Amino acid sequence: MEKLIEFFFPPRCAFCGKLGKSPCEDCKKNIRFISGNACQKCGIPIGDTALPFCPSCLRENFAFERVFPVFYYEGVVRKGVHLFKYRGFYQNAITFSRLMVKKILEANINADIITFVPTSRDRYLQRGFNHSFLLAKNIGKILKIPTIDLLTRVGYTKPFYNLSRQERQREIKGKIKLKKGYENIIKGKKVILVDDIFTTGATANECSTVLLENGVKCVFVSVLAITKFTR
């Protein structure tokens, strides 16, 4: 996939779209990588606190083991994700997935399967691709772990951008299902679930719950960026 994308699309900065290397020198100055003492669940920095979790994760009972975000979802990162999802900058998947792999390797995760958050049929038809699949496919290729399309969405879900935490949880509940035929393949396996943005964790949690209910041993979540949504 990577060679195909590089053949059809010239190298550009994944964050601003300018021709040349990625990230370009201007964007490199404005990118905030997640680093330091982080929440042991969602991965957001928590400073010098002695607690292992951020206030948000102390309130929640997430099904996944831990999230591994690369950036905050802000500034040039937000622009880069927008270019990727809505402007057809497919080549951004290469830069983004390499950065996500670096984070996974730093965490020393041993996984058996890579999968990804499914998109609805309407959004797939609108965009023409599932951005999470592109990220997952490249991550799997680099790590030499099989990428399997395990999950599907059922029914209609409202756009999440203006919904509260509780509304997102209610909206996604029951809307993720395991595809038929994978029940025996995933039993006892460690899975990395890939998505682009972690906001409240509602979607990642629902996907993880479905996987665990069908026999997966544990789920780690790899995302490009995390928001500061009511944290």
TrEMBL record:
Gene3D superfamilies found in the cross-reference section: 3.40.50.2020
The keyword Ribonucleoprotein appears for this protein: no
Protein name (record): Phosphoribosyltransferase
Transmembrane stretches, start-end: none
GO molecular function: glycosyltransferase activity
Family statement drawn from the similarity comment of this UniProt entry: Belongs to the ComF/GntX family.
Name of a matching Pfam family: DZR_2
Residues annotated as domain Double zinc ribbon: 5-58
InterPro entries, per database record: ComF/GntX_DNA_util-trans, DZR_2, PRTase-like, PRTase_dom
Keywords carried by this UniProt record: Glycosyltransferase, Transferase
Source organism (scientific name): Caldicellulosiruptor obsidiansis (strain ATCC BAA-2073 / JCM 16842 / OB47)
